[in-house]
């Protein structure tokens, strides 16, 4: 939606009593003035908002931020998706701990230029968090000595090439008391799982075995009911944690690769994970 040929203009939304869901795409054609004119902040019935830029935007990066700032929704928003945003940081309405307190789902995808991210733990109602292709994201929390995601149930991390820890500094503590489903794909620097005593489902796809092995080190592995592992590491060797006898309650197990989970010769003892 923008000023390119054949497109409607975003200003046409100003007087519409929008409810439930709105998707705005091709935002590289939208100006800050047009974004302000659509008055999203007055649309209190709008629950779901998706904002998408082109991957081939020729706009200045600071215009991305000014347009996103002008698209500030009503505080009652429940779902927010931002795709291919190329600002260096997010505007205040995204990062403020006093805004978006009703948000239950957040998806950030393809924000490759972004260096400053929200403190994701500030969203106290968040149940679903999806982070994809955020090439400069290193942790979920950067400056909190103790952080809890009190309502988060579903977490997806995909193609986060520099994501290496859950909290920024040693000694900081992060918990997910009700998290039950985790999907992690191509996060090569991440070596451990978070503290999540209710975790039931893990889907993991990585080149290296370290993160997979951390699953078997976790004291909560016995609570898992569904485990999907795709690990192509052919150099990884069985380690001590695989020899431990752990009681598990898996009802479904899917493996691709994962050669390090199997004995290389009949003379080797069966690993505890299979017992």
Total discrete domains: 1
Return the CATH class. Alpha Beta
Basic shape: elongated
- Judged by helices, strands and strand pairing, the structural class is alpha/beta
Q: Which percent range fits the helix content? A: 10-25%
Largest sheet: 10 strands, parallel
The whole-number mean of residue pLDDT values reads 85
Count all strands and give the number.
12
Q: What multimeric state do the chains show?
A: single chain
**Radius of gyration using CA atoms only:** 22 Å
What strand line-up does the widest sheet have? 1-2-3-4-5-7-9-10-11-12
* Annotation field: number of helices: 5
Order of secondary-structure elements: EHEHEHEEEEEEEHEHE
CATH architectural type: Alpha-Beta Horseshoe
Low-confidence stretches: none
Kindly report how far apart the N and C termini lie. Answer: 57 Å
The proportion of strand residues reads: 15-25%
According to CATH, the fold-level topology is Leucine-rich repeat, LRR (right-handed beta-alpha superhelix)
Organism: Triticum aestivum (Wheat)
Pfam families: LRR_R13L1-DRL21 (PF25019)
Protein name: R13L1/DRL21-like LRR repeat region domain-containing protein
Q: Mind explaining what this structure looks like?
A:
By secondary structure, this protein is of the alpha/beta class. It has one domain: Alpha-Beta Horseshoe (Leucine-rich repeat, LRR (right-handed beta-alpha superhelix)). Helix content is 12%, strand content 22%. It contains five helices and twelve strands. The strands form two sheets. A ten-stranded parallel sheet has the order 1-2-3-4-5-7-9-10-11-12, with no helix packed on it. It is elongated. The termini are far apart. The model has no long low-confidence stretch (mean pLDDT 85).
